[in-house]
Design goal:
9 strands, 29% helix, 31% strand, 183 residues
Length: 183
């Protein structure tokens, strides 16, 4: 005989929600992949829309993984606990471990400053590596930033490309989760 009926139903509902979130994340990844293929073969009239569509799906993926209503959040970046539950009346348990299925990254530039994605304003911001304080340097993820090269974790990018204020940075890219980057 399994555990308490009410507890079993709550566990099933919780796990069903986790599975639905996994399916949603998979859908966002499929959309992003489709958009990337279309962008590679796209025309100049629609080329500007592909990065926007990609980033909308990317933000949806992150939002789904970081769902604040899930407790414990088995898919988010926060260090939540694992999910352990009884599987029978004699006290045996099973545990489902947390796995980060969102995506995050930061860049450590050649001066030792850290560049992080500001999710609320869609900017890449430079911060002091020791204090975390903003340095005042930033770039819009759409239109204000150009990826010049990426080889392994070595990265070169330019802020304010095609302007008189263009600045090129080199650094090291660190990724976590699914390791997907903004368009």
């Amino acid at each position: 005989m399994a555990g308490h009926p009410g507890r079993d139903q709550r566990r099933r509902l919780f796990l069903d929600k986790v599975v639905k979130r996994l399916e949603t994340i998979r859908g966002h990844l499929d959309d992003m992949l489709s958009t990337a293929f279309k962008a590679r073969n796209g025309d100049t009239h629609s080329a500007w829309t592909y990065p926007i569509k990609f980033d909308v799906s990317f933000r949806g993926l992150i939002s789904t993984a970081e769902d604040r209503g899930a407790n414990p959040n088995l898919l988010g970046s926060a260090q939540h606990r694992n999910f352990t539950y009884k599987i029978n009346d004699i006290g045996e348990t099973e545990t489902i471990s947390r796995t980060f299925l969102g995506s995050d990254y930061y860049i450590t530039d050649s001066t030792g400053k850290i560049w992080t994605r500001d999710r609320s304003s869609f900017l890449l911001r430079q911060r002091d590596a020791t204090t975390g304080a903003k340095t005042g340097e930033f770039a819009a993820l759409t239109g204000g930033l150009r990826l010049d090269s990426l080889s392994g974790s070595a990265i070169t990018f330019t802020t304010a490309p095609d302007t008189a204020d263009a600045t090129t940075y080199t650094g090291t890219l660190s990724r976590s989760g699914l390791e997907v980057l903004d368009a």
